[in-house]
Description:
Layout: H1 4-14, H2 17-38, H3 43-60, H4 70-89, H5 108-118, H6 124-135, H7 140-147, H8 151-171
Helix pairs in contact: 1-2, 2-3, 2-4, 2-6, 3-4, 4-7, 6-8, 7-8
Amino acid sequence: MNSDRELANRVAVSGDQAAFGQLVERHQIPVRRFLRRLVAGDVNAADDLAQDTFIIAYHKMHTWKGTAQLTTWLHTIAYRLFLDHVRKHSRTSVMAEVPQDDTVASLPAEAEILAQQLMSLLSPKDRTCMTLAYSAGLSHAEISEIVDLPLGSVKSRIHRGKLKLQQWLKEHDHPIQTNGSTPPKEDRHAGSAA
């Protein structure tokens, strides 16, 4: 199996569409999941932004230097497109509604929908940091690079977002409760305690 670097070089040098197809296949699910959380479950907007992310990536593959992982570079493109989307649609878009108290996420798909809806409680930057930490499993440093914030700000945004979501669940006596666990490898992942 070819590495991201090898495939990206083929795309950058000769526009190899088959190599790019392999990169899309590898990275489309995490990018779409990231964008769906950012747009609080607006599947159409997320899919459009994901498609735009990969179109831009194809045309700008020669600019990826390989100092960061390809996934970090793709998430950066996706995040910038999301910010443009927010600016363009801030007056007219309606994000997903906060879940009703009786919403119970018993199936994985329902839990994902609930998670996307809960993201609407957070500011776009907090939502982004939380999603990159817990959904994408990126480190604080990688998130800092994507959102262009200092490391300490990333940590505090993740902590603040987590507290806000836990508070909502507690206030609404929601059946989904957090157990205070953190993702594995606390020292690497942004989901670790700040």
